[in-house]
């Protein structure tokens, strides 16, 4: 029966002979194409936006951080062999351990000043995120003694203080009640467009900050952990917490080390991103409603123009399921045409935006310089499959009306 219905439906012209048929076809195809384009844009932009913000958060703040021991007087954490072995045993091999020291201070020029946080990190780490944000100058080799007084600050901060690459600037620190002054050289400028982070974070030498803060060669304020699967951060945090508690309880570690992760420290941003999922759901439902309405109305028009055909088929012995399947197949031809057009337009425009960044954004408001796009093939395949299934279910209603038409009245109708 399915083969017969498909054979007959393929021989029914979508254009028909009536004046309203071509318009109905155009509206139906356009409705499906529009729905596909809007849903693909929504999916790609939301995923791209979430990935972009997550990458910035995890670039400035480690995925997991091990803090100084509870009760520590100097608030430093020493990366002893025992602590390193415990941490590495609890985490995947991909985990990257990086000591970091954050020291509050103040950048001062002759006529201006700004409170900042100086961030020094183990120089043997992967600084791909930091290097990708560089817009001027160079990223210093902080492992070299010659770069001990080099710093990298944001372009936003440099402009507000009237500074540039190569300029020397005084940094003031207050450590244990004592004021310490250092003269730093600006080696480069970065720009992440991430609001408060750009106005606050100044990259500096870990070795130089240790001297200022009074920390030894294996100590810092945190042990940062990166290189984990972003979806497993919470689970890895729990595993590491249990490992540290167990090590402290059995005496393998002398202290208990609390931990934190970016999902908690950046909870404000992650909760904001979670709200986007609701917007996606609403847009998808609206677009499905638009596509469904245009399909139903267009198929009804096509059915009305083929009343005589329906009557002849029924008079020749065609069953109701056969007639219903004929018009479902006819409607699916419209859906297929609309999906092809929608995918060509949607994916084509998304690729243009992905590689040219043609549509800009206000970085101060959106934290990104252009509309982000992330194309995930499996998600687009699932989206198209879902639209096709929903369209098929919707088409059953008007096709059922066609199947229930009385053959005698259909043949006699003018």
Which labels suit this protein?
414 residues; 6-stranded mixed β-barrel
Structure notes:
There is one protein chain. With 414 residues, this protein is of the alpha+beta class. 55% of the residues lie in helices and 18% in strands. It has 15 helices and twelve strands. The strands form two sheets. Strands 3-4-9-6-8-7 form a six-stranded mixed barrel. Strand 3 and strand 4 form a beta hairpin. Helix 12 runs antiparallel to helix 14. The longest helix has 41 residues. The protein starts with a helix and ends with a helix. About 1% of the residues have low confidence.
How can the largest sheet be summarized?
Answer: 6 strands, mixed, barrel
Please give the count of helices: 15
The backbone outline, from C-alpha atoms, is elongated
Provide the low-confidence segments as ranges. Answer: 16-20
Class inferred from helices and paired strands: alpha+beta
Strand order of the largest sheet: 3-4-9-6-8-7
Helicity range: 55-70%
Secondary-structure element series? HHEEHEEHEEHEEHEHEEHEHHHHHHH
Strand residues, percent: 15-25%
Mean pLDDT: 84
What is the count of β-strands?
Answer: 12
Head-to-tail CA distance between termini: 30 Å
Radius of gyration (CA) equals 32 Å
């Amino acid at each position: 029966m399915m083969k017969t219905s498909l054979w007959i439906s393929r021989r029914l012209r979508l254009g028909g002979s009536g004046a309203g048929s071509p318009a109905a076809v155009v509206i139906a195809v356009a409705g499906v194409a529009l729905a596909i384009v809007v849903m693909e844009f929504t999916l790609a932009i939301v995923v791209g936006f979430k990935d972009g913000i997550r990458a910035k958060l995890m670039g400035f703040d480690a995925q997991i951080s091990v803090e100084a021991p509870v009760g520590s007087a100097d608030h430093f954490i020493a990366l002893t062999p025992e602590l390193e072995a415990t941490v590495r045993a609890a985490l995947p091999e991909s985990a990257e351990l990086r000591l970091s020291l954050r020291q509050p201070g103040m950048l001062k020029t002759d006529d201006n000043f700004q409170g900042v946080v100086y961030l020094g990190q183990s120089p043997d780490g992967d600084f791909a995120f930091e290097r990708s944000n560089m817009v001027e100058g160079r990223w210093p080799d902080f492992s070299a003694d010659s770069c001990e007084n080099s710093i990298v600050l944001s372009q936003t901060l440099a402009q507000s203080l009237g500074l540039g690459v190569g300029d020397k600037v005084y940094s003031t620190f207050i450590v244990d009640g004592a004021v310490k002054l250092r003269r730093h050289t600006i080696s480069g400028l970065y720009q992440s467009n991430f609001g408060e982070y750009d106005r606050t974070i100044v990259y500096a030498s870990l070795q130089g900050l240790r001297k200022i803060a009074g920390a030894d060669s294996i100590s810092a304020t945190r042990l940062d952990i990166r290189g984990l699967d972003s979806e497993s951060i919470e689970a890895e945090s729990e595993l590491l917490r249990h490992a540290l508690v167990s090590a402290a309880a059995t005496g393998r570690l002398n202290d208990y080390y609390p931990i934190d992760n970016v999902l908690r420290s950046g909870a404000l941003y992650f909760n904001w991103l979670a709200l986007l999922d609701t917007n996606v759901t609403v847009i998808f439902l609206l677009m499905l409603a638009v596509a469904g309405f245009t399909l139903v109305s267009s198929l009804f028009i096509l059915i009305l123009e083929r009343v005589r055909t329906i009557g002849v088929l029924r008079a020749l012995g065609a069953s109701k399921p056969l007639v219903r399947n004929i018009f479902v197949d006819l409607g699916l031809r419209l859906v297929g045409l609309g999906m092809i057009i929608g995918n060509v337009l949607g994916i084509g425009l998304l690729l243009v935006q992905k590689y040219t960044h043609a549509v800009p954004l206000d970085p101060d408001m959106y934290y990104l310089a252009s509309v982000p796009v992330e194309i995930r093939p499996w998600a687009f395949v699932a989206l198209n499959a879902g639209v096709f299934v929903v369209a098929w279910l919707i088409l059953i209603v008007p096709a059922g009306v066609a199947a229930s038409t009385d053959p005698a009245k259909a043949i006699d109708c003018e």
